[in-house]
Specification:
32% of the residues lie in helices and 20% in strands. By secondary structure, the chain is of the alpha/beta class. The strands form three sheets. A four-stranded antiparallel sheet has the order 7-1-8-9, covered by helices on one side. Helix 2 (23-33) packs across helix 8 (182-198) and helix 3 (81-90) runs parallel beside helix 7. The longest helix is centred in the last third of the chain and has 17 residues, at 182-198.
């Protein structure tokens, strides 16, 4: 069992493990218990009533958090010609085609998200093993394979996140920073939960939202009452 520091232990004493806190109350408690010297990220973990082994019960998608995540992502766009110019005008941090592909093959990874126009995917596909292993491969379902590069870049910069079911049947995602107002974190919480409810697979039976907890990077988890989302 992992050993926790004194600050964590003291914070955990202020959380009643059996209690399901209302979303706003849980978020305020997470903010109160954050004690690190840096601006911790507020994370959410959602346990879903689906079988992650079955393809027809996969849960994956994207959502634009209304108040962002508190982190400005560095966006790389694979595009040529006018679409490259469009990406640059939209605020992409890096834009290119063969030159960027070669750079990545040489070990460069100073970006957080990749966007590609469909006509570039045959070339970007050469990076499948490299980018796929890091979860960076452009994907139509995530809105990162598109000719509308302006929209893609703007949404990513505004706080679009991708969520994806893991092997344990859980979704993990950031909601923002501890420095955010509790109301803004609550708005982001609701936006993500609403997106997950809309993404419920038709094959999922029984209770879909099984449990949710929020925590800061260095703090204890606080369980949330999901009655309003059920």
């Amino acid at each position: 069992m992992a050993k926790h520091g004194k600050k964590y232990v003291e914070a955990a004493k202020q959380v009643t493990a059996e209690t399901l806190y209302e979303p706003q109350e849980a978020i305020e408690l997470v903010k109160k218990l954050a004690s690190a010297k840096f601006d911790e990220t507020v994370d959410i973990a959602v346990r879903l009533g689906v079988d992650p082994r079955k393809q027809d019960q996969a849960v994956r998608g994207v959502v634009v958090l209304p108040h962002g995540t508190g982190k400005t992502k560095r966006v790389l766009v694979f595009a040529k010609g006018e679409k490259a110019k469009e990406a640059e005008a939209a605020g992409a941090d890096f834009v290119g085609d063969a030159d960027m592909i070669n750079k990545i093959q040489q070990g460069w990874f100073e970006f957080d998200v990749c966007v590609a126009t469909p006509d570039m995917m045959s070339e970007v596909g050469k990076l499948g093993r490299i980018l796929g292993g890091k979860g960076l491969m452009p994907n139509p379902k995530a809105g990162t394979v598109t000719f509308d590069v302006t929209k893609a870049v703007n949404e990513i910069k505004a706080g679009k996140i991708e969520y994806r079911l893991d092997k344990a049947g859980q979704i993990h995602a950031p909601l923002g920073k501890v420095s955010f107002d509790a109301d803004k974190l609550a708005d982001n919480f609701k936006a993500l939960l609403d997106a997950l409810v809309r993404a419920k697979p038709a094959a999922a039976k029984g209770q879909y939202l099984k449990g949710v907890a929020v925590s800061s990077t260095m703090g204890p988890s606080v369980r949330v009452n999901l009655q309003s989302f059920r």
